[in-house]
Amino acid sequence: MHMELTFDEICAKGLQVYDRPTLEQLILLDYTEVKVRFPNNGIRPMWQMELPSLYLVPRPLSVGDLEQNPGRCLDVLRYCLRKYTTFDKWWDPRWVEKAIELKMGWLEAWRPLTFKEADLLLEKTRAVAERVKILYWRGRRGRPATKRKAVVKAYVLQNYSPDLSGDELTRRFCPCGLEHDHDRVQDQCLPSLKSELTMLRRLLRDCEIKLPEHPMVHDPPFWDLGVRE
Ligand SMILES: [Zn+2]
């Protein structure tokens, strides 16, 4: 796809411009072919852009914040993924594949969509993040990845609160919806959570991602705040 966009047009399209292309852009566009026209700097391919990361200032969270709002655990891993996405990694297709799996299969886990279902949804939304999600799940088979986000939360919280027992983690995060009596936890839910945690740990190792010493997040850039369109 050949495309030329000005900075303003990029903003108008709701695309997010960071100091390097985001995984969303990689999925949505063939980013090597997308060129950006700057007022003074001429035309540059998107992958060469080095815009100031003004809107990506990291902010520390307390473990209490995570405990109270486990959704922030997902933000901690999103922060890590962005932080560890370096230029040389973009040229490693194996890394990109794993990173997309982490991003779309875990952090934004959703459900498989038929082509028809996906196309109907695409007609209804122009929000980039939403469209990327729909495109990723379009035509996929299998079961909804409902557990994945819960596993991410359990993983991050366990890392920062090592005193939390597997039992407690299971009761808090297992999404099975059944009553968590002792036997159920020990025989079913805890083993299943543990095996999912192992999968996630392996994926993070493949992506060369480590959690920071203290939980950190990026607050969304101004164009993520829903002002546009
Ligand atoms: Zn359960």
How many runs of DSSP E, i.e. beta strands? 5
What share of residues is helical?
40-55%
How many angstroms does the end-to-end distance come to? 25 Å
Largest sheet: 3 strands, mixed
Write down the overall mean pLDDT.
78
The global form is: globular
Spatially, the strands of the biggest sheet line up as: 1-2-3
Please work out how many helical segments DSSP would assign.
11
Structural class call reads: mainly alpha
Strand fraction equals 5-15%
| Ligands bound, unique | zinc ion
Quickly count the domains.
3
SSE order, one letter for each helix or strand: EHHEEEHHHHHHHHHE
Rounded Rg: 19 Å
Poorly predicted parts: 16-20, 50-55, 221-229
How is this structure best described in words?
The protein is mainly alpha-helical. The chain folds into three domains: 3-54, no CATH class; 57-109 and 145-218, no CATH class; 112-141, no CATH class. It contains eleven helices and five strands, in the order βααβββαααααααααβ. The protein has helices at 7-12, 23-28, 63-68, 71-83, 87-90, 93-107, 115-124, 128-137, 147-160, 166-173, 182-206, and strands at residues 3-6, 34-38, 42-45, 58-60, 216-218. The chain has a three-stranded mixed sheet. A hairpin with a 3-residue loop joins β2 (34-38) and β3 (42-45). α6 runs antiparallel to α11 and α9 packs antiparallel against α10. The longest helix is centred in the C-terminal third of the chain and has 25 residues, at 182-206. The radius of gyration is 19 Å and the shape is globular. Residues 16-20, 50-55 and 221-229 have low confidence and may be disordered.
